[in-house]
Predict the structure.
Amino acid sequence: MKAPVITIDGPSGVGKGTISQYLADALGWHYLDSGALYRILGYAANRAKVDLEDADALTELMDSLRINFSGGAQLDGESIDENIRTEQAGERASRVAQHPPIRSAMLELQRGFLKSPGLVADGRDMGTTVFPQTPYKFYLTATAEERAKRRYKQLKEKGQSGNIGALFRDIQQRDDRDMNRADSPLRPADDASIIDTSSLSISEVLEKVIEQLPFKANVSLD
Ligand code: DC
């Protein structure tokens, strides 16, 4: 491998993004938010009125996208960070992510993020499919109830409204689709370290991850 990779996989709402970003900052490494790639494709498909079940049309659309992450997600030069962070965008991402041709097109794109001095990659199949050779694999879990509560709190903090029952159902539906698709379903790699985050704070999870790594990290949680 060109540079070391740390993979952080797990179901939606488990806090992978936050942990991965802090970890990448603490190490001074690059960060890959692979879910954002599927979210961008779902967003672009919706905008272009492409059927989310039409794998051929989605593959063609994907080939034409110009994705950039400098200062947030950008599509064809336009900032779409807010548009791809909604619950609906997550649901669309999960649907486009079911198609094998899309997943294989995403492979090369995702591996292209690996650059010196290293990469923290967050997603569903980072440890099983995209970077299976790395020895630094983590899988974060938490109950669906706990994840729905965290989502609800996040929405409140952003001044948005949410319904905890609906969030719980969305999370269960997304887990079900992500875990049961035929191509690279969500599951821990055999050699992943599994961390149940249900009763842990962000700094406690980060500490557990860092203590298992041989790299020097400067953690600052602000
Ligand atoms: O991590 P996220 O919530 O942003 O991901 C959105 C959806 O994208 C998720 O429900 C399934 C899909 N996804 C995937 O299939 N593989 C990945 N590596 C990352 C995300």
About this structure: The chain has one domain: 5-206. Residues 5-206 form a domain with the Rossmann fold fold (CATH 3.40.50.300).
